[in-house]
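Last lecture ended with a question: if I hand you only a sequence, what can you say about the shape of the protein? Today we answer it with a concrete record. The protein is Hydrogenase maturation factor HypA. Below, first the input exactly as provided, then the predicted structure, then a couple of comments.
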Amino acid sequence: MHELAITQSVVDEVLSRAGSRPVHAVHLRVGALTAVVPSAVEFCFDLVAAGTVVEGAKLHIDLTPGRAACRSCGVSFDLPDPVLLCACGSADVSVLAGRELKIVSMEVG
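The predicted structure:
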C-alpha cells in the first residue's frame, strides 16, 4: 500500500511548516490518475499523525478528474481511467489534469 508512504510524506511536510503549532485541518488535491486511493490516505492519516501536532486534524481531499487533449484531432476530453485514448482512436494525447497530488492548504492554531 503506497498510500502509507504518501501520507507519511504529507504529514512530514505539514510538520515541517507547522512547527509546534497545532494543525486543525489539511487540504489535499488528489488527481484521479495518480492511482492514490483517497479512502486509504484517510485511513493512514490518523495513524501517521498520532503523537504529532497533526493528531486530530481533519483531512479534506478534493479529487481532481482526469482531463486530456488529443494532439491528432484537437478535442479535449475527460479521462475516467488511466487509459490515454481519444474517441478518435489516437493515443497521442497530453494529460491536462488528474495527476496532481498537492497539499493545498493547512489550518494551524
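Comments.
1. The beta strands are 23-31, 58-64, 66-70, 76-79, 93-97, 101-108.
2. The first helix runs from residue 2 to 18.
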